[in-house]
Every structure is written in C-alpha cells, then in structure tokens.
Amino acid sequence: MVAAAPSIAHQSASDLKTLAQRTRQTARQLALLPTEAKNRGLEAIALALESHADAIVAANQLDLQAALKDDLAKPLYGRLKLDPTKLAGAIAGVRSVAQLSDPVGHVHIHRQLDDNLVLKRITCPLGVLGVIFESRPDAVMQIASLAIKSGNGVILKGGREAVRSCTAIVEAIHAGLATTGIDPAVVQLLTTREETVALLQLEDEVDLIIPRGSNSFVRFVQDNTRIPVLGHADGICHLYVDAAASVEQAIAIAVDSKVSYPSACNAIETLLVHEAIAPAFLPDLATVMADHGVELRGDIATQTHIDVAAATEEDWETEYSDLILAVKVVDSAEGAIAHINHYGSHHTDAIVTENDAIARLFMAQVDAAGVYHNCSTRFADGFRYGFGAEVGISTQHLPPRGPVGLEGLVTYKYQLVGSGHVSSTYSGASPKPFKHQDL
Amino acid sequence: MVAAAPSIAHQSASDLKTLAQRTRQTARQLALLPTEAKNRGLEAIALALESHADAIVAANQLDLQAALKDDLAKPLYGRLKLDPTKLAGAIAGVRSVAQLSDPVGHVHIHRQLDDNLVLKRITCPLGVLGVIFESRPDAVMQIASLAIKSGNGVILKGGREAVRSCTAIVEAIHAGLATTGIDPAVVQLLTTREETVALLQLEDEVDLIIPRGSNSFVRFVQDNTRIPVLGHADGICHLYVDAAASVEQAIAIAVDSKVSYPSACNAIETLLVHEAIAPAFLPDLATVMADHGVELRGDIATQTHIDVAAATEEDWETEYSDLILAVKVVDSAEGAIAHINHYGSHHTDAIVTENDAIARLFMAQVDAAGVYHNCSTRFADGFRYGFGAEVGISTQHLPPRGPVGLEGLVTYKYQLVGSGHVSSTYSGASPKPFKHQDL
C-alpha cells in the first residue's frame, strides 16, 4: 500500500489527539514489518532527503536569517545551522541506522510450561514516541530513523526557530516513505508550543516522551506529563581521587572529564580529593587546570593547599556546564561516596585508585547509572558503549538506565501458545505440576 | 554488626522522610551482601516467626475481633485471618524465597571497549520499595522476604484492620534480623493512612511503589505519586473465538478463563465471537455458562442467537470481577483486535483458532502484556510462568510488563574499568577506534 503524504499543519488539541491515534494505528502496521522492509523505508528516506537537499538547505537559510533577526543565542544558532555537509552527514546517519541490529523480535524467555504449552517473551515496539527538542533540525532525521527501525510511530516537536527546516525535512521523509509500504503518517511534526503542552497530556496515545534540550526544559517536561520520560535533567558527575591514586593518571582523567566538552552532561562538576593525597595532587591540578582555563573553587581544606575561591553549598549542587570545577577534600572513600550519593544526579561518577578493594566499594555503593574506575566520565555515551545509537541517558533508578540505545524504544510481550490448556488442570485437589523447562 | 530492632511507631511526615533515608542507608549495606548472607537473614526471619507464632496469632485474633465489631466485608475478613496453618504456609514461603535465584549481580553486557577498558552492565537492587496493601497480613512476610532477597529496603503500609497482626509480624522479622548482620531497619512498617499519603511524596527516598488492593485503590496510588508504580488498576481481559476455532476447546477455555477465579485480574470480562461460528458456539456456551452460574450479556447480534440481556457500551469497559460475561459478535479477527485495543487494559487477551496465520496476526497486533493462543487467560501469573514469585502484574507499555518476578525489584548499573583511559584518545583529528568486543 502506497499512501499519500499527509500535509503538515497546525493542530488543535482535539486534532492532536486524532493525529496521535492515527499515528498509533499506522505504527501498528509498521510493527508487523520485517527488518528488510523497515530498512528499505530508511533507504527511501535517505534518497528523498538527498533529492530534497536544496529545498532543505534553503529552508534552513530562512530559519537562520530569522534567528539573526531574533538575536538567537550563538550556541543555538550553531546547532540550528544545516549546511550541505552537515545534511550529508545526517543522511549517512539514516543509512547507518539501517545497519543497526533490529531491536524487535528478540526472544528473551522461551519456556515450556507443560507439554504443548509454550511461553515466549519477545521484544516489540513501544507504540508511539513523542520527541520534543530545541534547535538542531538534524535531530529530526536521526529520531525518525530510530523510530522506524524500532517499529514505532513518532510525533516530533522541533523548536520554533527551526520550524522551516524541520518542515522541509519531514516533507522529504514523507515523500520517501510514500514510495514504500510504510504509511508516512508514522512520522508526524508539530510546530507550536501549544501543541507541546497538548502532546504531554496524551497519556493514552503516546508511550514515551524523549525531551532533548536544556536541563530546565527537561524538568518542565517531567513536571508536566504522566507519560514516562526518557532522559535526565541534571548531570552532576563526580571524580574522586583516592589516597591510593596515581597522581599523573588522576590529573589526566580530571582534565579529560572536565575540559574535553564542559557542557556535556557527562563532564564532571565536582572533584573529591582524599586528604592524604591532597598535598601532592592539588598544586599540580591547579597548574594544569589553569592552563586549560578552568576556574577552580574549593572548600576550606582545599584552600589550605591551593589559592582558589571558596566553594559554597550551592557549588555542590550546580551543573556548571562550563570551565568551572568545585573541589572538596574528604577524609575517606566513604566520605566521597556519601557526598556523591547526597549531591549527585545518579548519572556517572568515577574513582581513581590503585586500591582494588576501595574501587569495588565505590562501584558498589555509589548510586549512579555509571560507576567508573580509572577512566574518564566522558565515556558515558551510547556510541562509546557500542550501542550504535543513543536515544538518551537516563538517571532514574528503573531500567532503562544510563545511555539508552535502540533497546530503550522497545518493550516486550508474553506469547503463550497451547492446545486447549486450562488453568484448572494445574490447581485444585490433584494439580498437575508445571514443567517449567527452558527451550 | 548486630543492630537493635527499631520500635514500630507512628511517624510524622518529617519523621517519615528521616525513616526512609535511614532505610535507604541500611539498604545500601544490604546491597553489598552475598546471596548466602541474605539467605541466612531469611532463615533467621523464618525461625523468629516460628518462635513468635503464638503472639502473631493472638494479635491477629484481636484484629479479627475488631473487624467483626466494625462489620468488615466478608472477603476482607477472610483475607485478614491468619491461623497457625496459614502462618506456617507463609513461613514456608519465606524459606522458598531463599531458594530462588539471586536477581542481583547478573552481568548482561561484558564488553571490551578497548584494551584494558572493560564495560559491564550488572544488576543491582533498586534501593527502597514502598509497598501498600489492604488486609492480608501474610503479604508482610512475602514482601519483606522478596525485598531482602533482592537487596532492597522496604517500607510496608498495611491496612488499618490488620495493624496488630502486621506489627506482631514485623516485630518478629526485626527480632530475626537482629540475630544476623542485616540491620532490622531495612524493613519498616507504617500504620496510618496519613503515612501512606506522605510515603507517596517521598520521590527522592523511595524508588518503586507496589500497591496491592482494589482497582480504585491502585488508581488512587497512581494518581497521587511521581514515584514509579508497579501494578495495574484494571484487568479487562478478552477471549476471541475465531471462525476457525474448535468449539469444544473454545467452551473449555471460556469457562476456565471466566469461572476458575472470577475476581482475578486475569479472568475474562468480554467474549468476542466471530459471526461465522456464532450459531454453532453461542447456544452451547449459554448452556455451559448457565450451569456455572454465569450471567451473560450480549450485543444485538448475540441476542439473535441466545436469550440474554443487552450489553451496553459500559459493559465493554467494565471489570466485573464476578460471574458476569459480556458477549459481542464480530465480523473478523481484525474487528476483534480493534475492539480489544480500544477497550482492553493491555493485560492478557486470548484467541481460540486452528488458523495459525490468524493467530499470529492476533498475537502481533493485540497490544497487551500477554497474548495467548488456544489457552486460558488464567495462566497470566508469575508462578505459572515459572518466576517462583510475583510482585505484581504490570499493564504499562514499558518494561517490566506482565507478571513481574524478583527481576522487577532490581535495576542495573554500568561499571567501566580502565587504566587511565581518557575520551580524547577516541575523538579529535586522528581518533583511535573503539574495539567494542563482547567478552
């Protein structure tokens, strides 16, 4: 079936519910498709994006002109820009999603409950994703690809500043899908802030919300929906330099964890230093960090070793997202663990030590999605973990936790196949026992 | 360390936060224990329950006397009763939890990212569980055992009508734990409704809420907390009798699915019948269901075949939890699937058919935690699935979904161990490639 591409238009709240229901319906068809058909859909999208490239870049130019007029903040402007090179990279990204292994149809449990009564737990799409992001029109291509690969419908809401770019991209995606058996309605685009608010209310129509943007934006989404949210508001990561650390290793890891990308959520905000190593470590740290333009702030004990501004309670709770690092001297690994569990955001925390017992204690007791030993917190990333894609990093306790790849976009169902089996056979006065034999 | 048993007392909201923080702290110690130590704790609890048996049964007698005076509903009264036989069964249950495999410490991912840079994804306890239940004091023993086995602290809130029984049981549990290295504070008991409301607000201290009780009670909990809730409010399960069904099989499965335990969440509420088999099937069904005391209600098409009261829109949305069954004639499997996806609660839905293609379509398209072919919906149960325990049945889309065993009480963390590895090695102008080799 080759369906016509739906037009992209402004939706009222009740229209939006209807749109989401249509997305769910079409996603149910998508869910049935074999891997090859989904991959053909992705290739059709890539081809259409290539043939629409001029229109997309032209639309992006209009967004950029409007952004200049509106005095858009410089980092946002950079992320908004979509030139032919960046577009080609995004299209290559669509094709690389086709190469990823299909997360649907994996059998995790295959068990004979009794003769001819067989249970399977098998992965299946979640249904409909709601993805809300700021700027970055290239995210549309990546997210739509991941949604299709995982068999999900997706409702996208881009930033106001990227509306022309996003619309041109989704028109290309629809045109591509229209040449395949996949209904273009599986990918929807919203364009207004009112629609965002309405989207967050659609708990019966949308199964997962993925917000991409600033901490305050993510917190707004979390506070305004009952739909599960994949992601995190804060990334307050710590590095603890233990008494038994190699100073050289600790310096290198501290620099990488802070300097390589200070605004990343997996960059460190606070450095905890054991008092026994502080005299040897802190002066070297201060020199190297100054070379990298990092402003240090320290507690009283830190200030006895190096000349830095005072860190206050607020510093332990702040994600600077900048070249600023708070430093605190602790009297033990237990002290470091207690600080992290109190102030951390359960994202990623690392220890540098040559003492394996202390490292094991740290990794067991620190309550975070990532607990690292002798390496940089910056490895906390779906691509670096080898997932091939990352849909977000979750700091909640329940799975999925940490960097989430395609597997975060699927769930599972239990399939039970019998030949007339009834439960009364296995209960009552002389119950037949179950076999419970894994196949 | 042998700690004294904390006393059980009435908590104010701020006391409760302190109590929950203490529970989390002690749970962090519990999380470090090897399986054998946790199992020794369970055996100590079993022994203490045995030595406190008289006190527990006496406390239960007082609850029962008060219940009689308060005119407690008969089913609640039955569930409240804890005689020596039922208590012995619950104590055997504690020992059987010790036999279950430990859900903590399972390694799901073990991957070399590069030389000497090794990633592990390993299961770990969630932290602190909040379990709120009505009546059934035996639930205290089961839940406390499952919490300890999974390395979690637990805050229990029993029904007002069971307060003396629950208190006596928790005193025994504390006495048992006090003879071991496990801090008794890992198991806490709340006794007032005000505490329930306060507990639901402790999103930083409690990781998972498990409500056990009526649908309206679960819905109240879901509507009044931002903590994840494991469970379901409704169990509207369907059986679809396809055109290609064996009538004899369909009758047997319908009877078992409705009659064997009508108030169970996995009992069916609506029977969907293909129009082609309706003339052969419905009269037999009516006879057999009448023998079992089941009241049938039917749509207009059903009423042309059998003499039943009319089913209204409301019937399709109702969990009767009683010997009542709504019947609707549909013109196709697709019609049945559409009805189920519209009115169902995503719990468990079954098809009876000899047509494998139709069965596959049904199982792929019905959006439920359990999709069954030629067997009773009553198999939807953690014990019947071979999980050894059931902490709840989830009808949400995200995992854990369906019957949840001990694995629902754990999460995972990523452990990354290097020897000074920094991310800048793998980015920039000449990045070193990752190896991403599973070990």
Properties at a glance:
homodimer; Aldehyde Dehydrogenase, Chain A, domain 1; Aldehyde Dehydrogenase, Chain A, domain 2; seven-stranded parallel β-sheet; 15 helices; about 40% helix
- The CATH H-level homologous superfamily of the largest domain in chain A: Aldehyde Dehydrogenase, Chain A, domain 1
The backbone outline of chain A, from C-alpha atoms, is globular
Strand order of the biggest β-sheet of chain A: 10-9-11-8-7-12-13
The pair of chains with the biggest contact is: A-B, 68 and 69 residues
What's the helix count of chain A?
15
How far the N terminus sits from the C terminus of chain A, by CA atoms, comes to 38 Å
Binned strand content of chain A: 15-25%
Structural class call of chain A reads alpha/beta
**What is the helical fraction of chain A, as a range of percent?**
25-40%
Number of strands of chain A: 17
Rg over alpha carbons of chain A: 25 Å
Low-confidence stretches of chain A: 1-7
CATH architecture of the largest domain in chain A: 3-Layer(aba) Sandwich
Count of the separate structural domains of chain A:
2
